[in-house]
Each structure stands twice: as structure tokens, then as C-alpha cells.
Amino acid sequence: MSWKGFFEGIQSLFVDVVFAPFDMLRSIAPESWFLSNIMSWILMAIGVVAFVYWMGQLKKFNDNNEEDRTSTGHTYL
């Protein structure tokens, strides 16, 4: 097996398998902007949910006063 065959195998994997759903979405709804960008909407929703969860966890720890806030609380200060 040569390097050329190795890289062609990687190309085949991504073009034929990994990006196939994107090609399907592109052919299904070429005129609808929202359907064309459905993956962006899904990733944005996941990011918003993760952000809200993280802020909730930070608020919970802040309300319990579990963090040492003195100037010597961390070694790098």
C-alpha cells in the first residue's frame, strides 16, 4: 500500500460516508435556507443547552460558597 492509496482511502471515507448526509440535505431542500442550514441550527442548539447547563452549575457552586475566593486560593495568584 502506497501513501497515495492511503490518502485516497481517507478521501473515499469522508466523501462517500461522512459527508453523505450533507449531500442529501443539499439535494432535498435547495430553496429553503432553514433546511439547508439544519446542521448549523442543531449545533447551535447543543451549544446553547451546554451553556445554560454550565451556567446553572456555576450558580449552584457559587450559591453554596464552595470556592475559596481569597487571594491565596490558587497557587498562580
Secondary-structure map:
Blueprint: H1 3-18, H2 20-28, H3 33-36, H4 38-63
Task: Summarize, please.
The chain is mostly helical. The chain has helices at about 5-20, 20-30, 35, 40-65. It has two domains: about 1-30; about 35-65.
Task: Explain what the structure shows.
By secondary structure, the chain is mostly helical. The protein folds into 2 domains: 1-31; 37-67. The chain is built from 4 helices and no strands. The radius of gyration is 23 Å and the shape is elongated. 0% of the residues are buried. The mean pLDDT is 84.
* Total tally of structural domains: 2
The largest sheet is: none
How many DSSP-defined strands? 0
Low-confidence runs (pLDDT<50, min 5 residues)? none
- What is the general shape? elongated
Q: Span from first to last CA?
A: 54 Å
H/E series: HHHH
Strand proportion: under 5%
Helix content: over 70%
Secondary-structure-based class equals mainly alpha
What's the total helix number? Answer: 4
pLDDT averaged over residues: 84
- The Rg value, from CA coordinates, equals 23 Å
